[in-house]
Amino acid sequence: MNASVEAEPYPYRFDLATTALLIIDMQRDFVEPGGFGETLGNDVSMLRRVIAPLREVLDAARAAGMLVVHTREGHEPDLSDCPPAKLTRGEPSLRIGDPGPKGRILIRGEYGHDIIDELKPLPDETVIDKPGKGSFYATGLQDLLTAHGITSLVVTGVTTEVCVHTTVREANDRGYECLVLSDCVGSYFQEFQDAGLAMISAQGGIFGWTAPAKQFLEALR
Ligand code: TIU
Q1: Fewer CB within 10 Å: C terminus or N terminus of the chain?
Q2: By three-state DSSP, how is residue 152 classified?
Q3: What DSSP designation does 122 have?
Q4: Residue 162 CA: which ligand 1 atom is closest?
Q5: pLDDT recorded at residue 90
Q6: pTM for the structure as a whole
């Protein structure tokens, strides 16, 4: 099925069979109190507004038979995959690997590292564990997409200017056509949300397209 989404900077055309929904880092460590996001001094309530529209998009993508891929940012329990620069940067109240209220901060297998219940992956959906901000760096994402014949990505998740942006830039350089759903990505900072979205579609779609979820849902129908 070919479809078109009303988007910035111009309509985004996609084929359902070659398009995947990518949900980036909707983890308790970022969107719930007590996790990594909050230890960095952020107000997590800014991210929670993404959950409801993203849930609607996830349901629609599943019903349409789209490939759904989730990602999680995090590290091995021995921190062997965490660069010292990431571990020691800044002065967070808790560092990666420290015990937090939801388990060790950003460590694989811990409760806080996992995806929130509202967006829980189905057993047949792939979850990509990544050590960095981008979803392609040091992961099997590209091989997975190639195996499924995916050439277009509908991108959602958090945070807009960090993991979403890094992933869209990586994807764009690899030739994927990215549509970022503006109300399904969230930032702790309103100004970064606004600038982050504007930077995607500026200059004729330098990194891709943006559109609110309702436009994508309409195209799916
Ligand atoms: N701190 C922040 O805005 N984001 C991250 O550290 N990771 C993601 O964006 N997933």
Answers
A1: C
A2: strand
A3: P
A4: 9
A5: 81
A6: 0.98
